[in-house]
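Risk register update: the risk of archive-format incompatibility is retired. Evidence:
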Amino acid sequence: MSGHKKEYRKEPGSVQEEMDELFGQFRNMWTSPLLSTNRVWRPPTDVLESNDQIVIRTEIAGIDKQKVAIRLKDNVLMIRGTRQKELEHEDCVYRNMELTYGRFERNILLPDTADPQRISATYKDGFLEIIVQKNPSTHGVAREIEISDE
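Archived output:
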């Protein structure tokens, strides 16, 4: 068997190109934000943990920080907000629509070592970054216990 990868080229107006376009339209129709205005979407989120802190980074570009709420309850950090749809141009139609609009929500379970009093958040360049400081862990700490006579 040769090491060549067979390359398929689509000719303009070919059946393959028309099928790709048709399936693309069908997929976009079912995932279109226009059809899912009541659906809550989940922005992409990274959670990193070190010995002394947890960093949560959520991509929410185009959202005014006044439309974002962060709440901690029972060790669950809740990030909620809304991305408003911009005004449509009356004489235009969408050729492609991938951005998601409407309400979003992410819930992140924090470990018991998270300090609820030491949480900070910043929003820059479309990323919300939340830093949760951790309490010093007593896990793995050893000490001698004296036995008393009484």
